[in-house]
Amino acid sequence: MADVSLFSHDQIVGLLAALPDPAFIFTRSGRYAALFGGADNRYYHDGSSLVGKTIADVLSDERAGWFIQQIAIALDQPGMHVVEYPLSGRDVRGLDNDGPPDVIWFEGRVRALGYQVQGEDAVLWIASNITASKRLEKQLRMFSETDALTGLANRRKLMQMLNEHYEMHARYGTPSAVLIFDIDEFKGINDRYGHLCGDQALQTTAEVCRAVLRSTDFPARLGGDEFVVLMPHTTRELAQPIAERLRLRVAEELRLLQSLGDGATISGGLSEMLPGDHSFEDVLKRADVALYNAKRQGRNRIACHFPVSLDAEL
Ligand SMILES: Nc1nc2c(ncn2[C@@H]2O[C@H](COP(=O)(O)OP(=O)(O)OP(=O)(O)O)[C@@H](O)[C@H]2O)c(=O)[nH]1
Q1: Ligand 1 centre distance from Cα of residue 62 (Å)
Q2: For 139-159, what is each residue's pLDDT tens digit?
Q3: pTM of the prediction?
Q4: How far apart are CA 261 and CA 189, in angstroms?
Q5: Ligand 1 pocket, residues with Cβ under 6 angstroms
Q6: What is the pLDDT of residues 93-141, one digit of tens each?
Q7: Is the ipTM reported for this complex over the cut 0.90?
Q8: Cα–Cα distance for residue pair 16/286, rounded to 1 Å
């Protein structure tokens, strides 16, 4: 604890004003009773014009309601209440145009004061700009979920998505189709034309997925030359023509690649989530069996694996 007797009243006022992060005093009803600090205008707008107003005066009803709720939580619990929230200068009525132009992510550290201010319970709310770490967090998440070569989702993200859609299927019976496909004789392509041409074939395949599939479909690179397309809300009847169109378009684009000689084709295995499946792995296994059958039947085709009682391998 600082020995405040070393400083004059004016010096303490000056020190509080120089604090880089803004420290608001909010009353329970949402009044901006006071503001200390917030001197770093690289990160903050000057909020001094807010003092005397209420949160409801400056924010939308929904936002204001959220702030009042957080103040109540902090007042009703001991210690620090920590929250994260986005806010832009435009969200707050009455701020000038200085300060950062974009949305700012804040970490709010909120604590009950233990005494009343202007006749009400009050909290200290320190708002720290965490936009840079939020941005980094988003970037890291993106890297951890993306396949570097093709830009498609990677295996980790695919498994997460398959699991989410399996849960939807198990709970609500929502249909989801799953296609596994790979490039035929890809090892030969690498051997004949080189690894870089192989990479180019994988990238082209990914581009076709992005171009041909609906935005709600979810293509991913499983690894090597294997791709998976999750088609949510898609029955097998709808999935078959989509898979077929993808097969034709990939072959067409790979033929157009000068570097691959006569081009290359793909083989795929298609299945769908079914009642009785215990996890998303069941549908992946069926699609994989179908892919194996497509290879056995001569490649450059899509095979389907649905249960025997329906219309097994087509
Ligand atoms: N260029 C390139 N090749 C890769 C990459 N990852 C895996 N591979 C190669 O992909 C090939 C996959 O071949 P296989 O799975 O054996 O099958 P295939 O030759 O496609 O034969 P079929 O699937 O039976 O038609 C292997 O030779 C791997 O070395 C990659 O990122 N880039």
Answers
A1: 53
A2: 999 999 999 999 999 999 999
A3: 0.77
A4: 9
A5: 149, 182-188, 190, 195, 198-199, 202, 224-225, 295, 299
A6: 777 666 677 888 999 999 999 999 999 999 999 999 999 999 999 999 9
A7: yes
A8: 66
Domains of the chain (ranges; CATH) run: 4-137 (3.30.450.20), 146-304 (3.30.70.270)
CA-to-CA distance for 220 and 216, rounded, in angstroms?
A: 13
Atom of ligand 1 nearest to the CA of 195: 1
Look at ligand 1, atom 16, and give the residue with the nearest C-alpha. Answer: 187
Q: What is the pLDDT of residues 184-194, one digit of tens each?
A: 999 999 999 99
Buried/exposed 163-195: b ≥16 CB within 10 Å, e otherwise? eebbebbbeeeebbbbbbbbbbbbeebbeebee
Q: How far, in Å, CA of 138 to CA of 141, rounded?
A: 5
Residue 38 region by backbone torsions, left for phi larger than 0, else alpha for psi between -120 and 50, else beta = left
